[in-house]
Model the fold of this input.
Amino acid sequence: MSGAIAFHAPAATRRPGGLGAFLLILPALALFLALFAFPVLRLLSLGFADFSFAWYAKALTQPLYREVFALTFRIAAATTALCLLLGYPVAYWLATTTQRRRAIGFLFILLPFWTSVLVRTYAWMVLLGRNGVVNKILLGLGVIDHPLALIYDFTGVLIGMVHVLLPYMILPLYSALRRVDPSLVQAAEGLGASGFAVFRRVYLPLTASGIAAGSILVFVLALGFFITPALLGGGHVVMIAVLIQQEVGELLDWNFAAALSGLLLVLTLAIYALVQGAVERRQRGRP
Amino acid sequence: MPAELEIASVSKSFGPVLALDDVGLSVRAGELLTILGPSGSGKTTLLRVIAGYETPDRGAVRLRGADITALPAARRNIGMVFQNYALFPHMTVGGNIAFPLQMRRRKRAEIAEIVEAALRLVDLAGYAARYPSQLSGGQQQRVALARAVVFEPLLLLLDEPFGALDRKLREAMQLEVRRLQRRLGITTLFITHDQEEALILSDRVAVMNRGRIEQVGAPTEIYHRPQSAFVADFVGESNIFRGHVAASAEGASVIVLDGGVMLDCAQAWQQGARVGAMIRPERLTPADVPGRNVLEGTIAEAAFIGTAWKCALRLGDGATVLVRLPTASATGLPASGARLAVRVPPESIHLFALE
Done:
């Protein structure tokens, strides 16, 4: 009995967002400010050292860097599109299958999550290399007569990134698809809708928020991706994160690296705002 | 005239549960037939088989003579109102009603006109631009109804559509559905567990129990001449006794109930057979003198329900009889523990076979 009373009593007196709750987040906040916010701001400030815009000017005007940005966005966009195309059917299957199969499906989707990105990327190098498994099989079957260039180019980077980022697309899509009332689908069928019409008129609009969430997540992660493009790109496909690493690690040009980071951050936030704005406009006018 | 909808020996089981057990049913063109049964009786499964959302294990469904058992739901041309209405939340009211017409590739101008007419039909003119979540329960119900009939389907199915509405609104919607159904002349199957609703709405009622159809008939027939103990018990209030036929002649018989009470009955039956006897509580009348067909006992409970007094009468043999005495005819106030004698008119006893 006293337990029940103790359980109920604070609920009546607790105010949301009170001082007590704020004090509890202080340790995490302090850690965040000291170890993340401060170094990041410090780095970004290097881009404007001595109140000079020279580094930003260099990043924006030299064609080489513009190309790197363009390539980065192209790869991120292609990765997002492929993840969406591959992930939607998987998410649909997960949302509609039996409890047991769903559990097994999730296990397979999350298993790579618990494996190091580095290991997975090396695995792709073994598979896709000049003397890799894929080329050997194709050569052995006589499908091709000289090895395909599957890595150290756009395709290789794309394959590796889609593999790593696919779960980030599937999970938001899955949760959106789960929220679609099955009776709406049956109603649409009963009213004469073909399978494709059910998808286009019911599933797609009702999961738009999940599509937007998954796409933003994958796109933003892909923009700043480092390990996979660094290894599978083999120096031929230079994405922005690889370039920044080179500036810091090899050329020791911290100021220019800061300017590139600042640009990437601004562009990422701009795209996020754009998509978010579009989603909100879509939902306005509908309660 | 061939039946509009013919359900022939349909069986369906889910794992070990037999949801439909050799169900046969003929629905006539233009009639409103209610499938009445408690939850778990298989009525929803039957509706889903007709709509095409379930495939029966055995048997066939024929609509206007065509076998549609294997036809996908999208090609059956059947309108359905779901229990939760299943209105598309991302479409306006107009968009919802236009949907089946768009699926049938009707012309845009034509669609606008038909949707407008459908909205007028359900008294919602001017609501086309609203979203379902901006409407009340009754209004959503009417939108679902309009969407289900706007494409002139061969058949209209309603799956317990009034469950979520309060009593007043439910009664108004019942009348509205009946009015709409008559006006459109559309063959309609209505599912409910509410026997009162079934009696009010239907041309005919099919009572379902444990995956089987127990009886099909007009509401008065179902109410006055149930053919099984289940129907007698499920439809309306009733007193059900078991006994045997002691004597029988042309249009009359004498029944001896298991408790020993002897009753004259205005219905012939095979002599010596076991029978069920049903007496509606409102058919019993207060009796001044003891005699044949008079039951005597003490009032165990009495409740005032407005138009009548509802009493539970405990007989000498321990059996309980429900009695409904019109407020006007009741001499004074029946008190708990008081003696009461009621007469059972022979023509008020309905006999049915015991399985």
Q: What stands out?
A: The first strand of chain B starts at residue 5 and ends at 14.
